[in-house]
Design a protein that fits this description.
Elements (H helix, E strand, L loop, with lengths): L1 H37 L28 H10 L3 H6 L5 H11 L4 H28 L3 H12 L1 H12 L7 H30 L3 E2 L2 H28 L5 H33 L1 H13 L4 H6 L5 H32 L4 H13 L1 H12 L3 H30 L9 H18 L3 E2 L1 H19 L4
Antiparallel strand pairs: 1-2
Helix pairs in contact: 4-5, 4-13, 5-6, 5-13, 5-15, 6-16, 7-8, 7-13, 7-16, 8-14, 8-15, 8-16, 8-17, 8-18, 9-10, 9-16, 9-17, 10-16, 15-16
Length: 451
């Protein structure tokens, strides 16, 4: 019996070993199959071969530059409104020609270059959107937001470079504040209003709204601190010493706000990338025009870069021509310098960003719209304002953040109004209309503000 049991035991062991060998073979074969499938070519929704490193949604199916297709896609742009804006492209050569042919026609130069910046800014927004589609969602939104603010950065730098006697520093401060107000009240209000016209309400995720609200309060706090300090100690020391202290505080604040922006980018791109990616992915599924957008012809990577270079070159040129006329326009017309900086300049510099966000709200992609609006506002408050102060510091220009009391009140109230509307995670056309009406009140007030 013991011999029989031993033989049975040995046969059981052999059977177990054979099963383990079969399992290992199956795993190896499966891994080979998976490895084989992972190396198979991928095709997107349009049947285009997806190139390495390109997101399927942004694959064009072409390479390099195809001039006719490039012009056709750029003219059609991303939406019907953007397409109508491209009709303004004849103003671009006209503005350049008038600047050199009629240097004394200051009003015409200003008006033509102001209008010419609209289609060029629109091209930056569209090319940025096309480029963002080729990248992962979160990185794409951040890049698109940054490119949308390129016009603002160019304008700020041109204003700083043309600041011969300190006359343009108030315009720069006004433009910083005006950019934030235009985003928070006008653009966000239009997003709520336009989206609310098609639906009873629209919902957005707290991940996007709460992070944006908290950082907005931080940025607003940093921007008004120099003003609060000036008001608190202004009667105790002479003006020269006060200006020097405010300048030092402004420069220190700029460095701190720049650090805050870096942390914000790290938060979105690294530590909380997966959460934001999930939110934007689910938002993309709700896009009313998703199928139509996916079926559209797209720019190649090279064409995106070419369009951005062309548009940025045009914007820079128009910005230079525009800024050179600001002081003369303020002196010769009824336009105040605060209205110029707080309303006129931000409207043209943020035009592309506003069109993108409003189009997303219309398509029910509210998380994308909020990401653009709040992201652009945060970039102005944390990055662009800091860059102006730090670059001015390097150039020996006393650029500070000493906003007036009126401006500080506007900024804080605007942030509080918007945060109140974002608190419940829902929006409707009434909230949008109220935001736009508040912006109109500010515009009317600044128009009559004395120089």
């Amino acid at each position: 019996m013991s011999g029989l049991q031993q033989r049975r035991s040995e046969s059981g062991v052999e059977h177990g070993v054979a099963q383990e060998i079969n399992m290992v073979d199956n795993v190896v074969n499966d891994s080979k199959d998976n490895s084989h499938h992972s190396h198979l070519p991928r095709y997107n929704h349009n049947g285009h071969l997806v190139q390495k490193g390109i997101h399927p949604d942004g694959e064009s199916g072409r390479k390099w530059v195809h001039p006719w297709m490039f012009l056709k896609i750029c003219f059609k742009s991303s939406s019907l409104i953007s397409k109508f804006v491209n009709v303004l492209w004849p103003f671009v050569p006209a503005a350049i020609a008038v600047h050199f042919a009629k240097p004394d026609a200051h009003l015409w130069i200003f008006a033509l270059n102001y209008i010419a910046m609209v289609p060029t800014a629109n091209l930056i927004g569209f090319a940025g959107q096309e480029l963002a589609r080729k990248l992962p969602k979160v990185i794409g939104v951040l890049l698109e937001t940054f490119l949308g603010s390129i016009v603002e950065i160019v304008l700020f730098m041109v204003l700083l470079a043309n600041n011969d006697h300190g006359n343009l520093i108030p315009v720069i401060r006004d433009a910083i504040l005006g950019s934030i107000l235009a985003n928070l009240l006008l653009c966000l209000g239009m997003c709520f209003f336009v989206g609310g016209m098609r639906r009873d309400k629209q919902e957005f995720d707290s991940v996007v709204s709460e992070v944006g609200s908290g950082l907005l309060l931080t940025g607003g706090f940093g921007l008004i601190i120099p003003c609060a300090f000036s008001l608190a100690v202004g009667d105790d020391i002479d003006s020269v010493a006060l200006d020097l202290l405010v300048l030092k505080i402004s420069r220190a604040t700029a460095v701190i706000l720049l650090i805050a922006f870096i942390i914000y980018v790290w938060f979105q791109m690294r530590t909380h990338h997966s959460i934001l990616h999930t939110v934007l992915e689910s938002d993309e599924e709700k896009d009313a025009d998703r199928e139509e957008d996916l079926a559209k012809h797209k720019l190649t990577f090279t064409e995106c870069i070419l369009a951005l270079l062309l548009a940025i070159a045009c914007v820079s040129m128009h910005a230079i021509f525009l800024v050179q006329e600001i002081e003369i326009i303020v002196e010769q017309t009824a336009i105040s310098d605060m209205f110029m900086g707080l309303i006129l300049v931000p409207l043209v510099e943020k035009f592309a960003e506003h069109l993108t966000a409003i189009d997303e709200a219309w398509d029910n992609s509210m998380n994308f719209a909020l990401a653009h609006v709040l992201g652009s506002s945060l970039q102005t408050a944390l990055l662009n304002s800091s860059l102006v102060v730090i670059v001015g510091w390097g150039l020996g220009i006393d650029m500070n953040l000493n906003f007036s009391t009126f401006q500080a009140i506007l900024l804080i109230l605007a942030i509080l109004v918007v945060n109140n509307f974002l608190r419940d995670g829902e929006s409707n056309y009434l909230e949008g209309a109220l935001c736009v009406l508040v912006y109109l009140i500010i515009a009317v007030t600044t128009f009559f503000f004395p120089n």
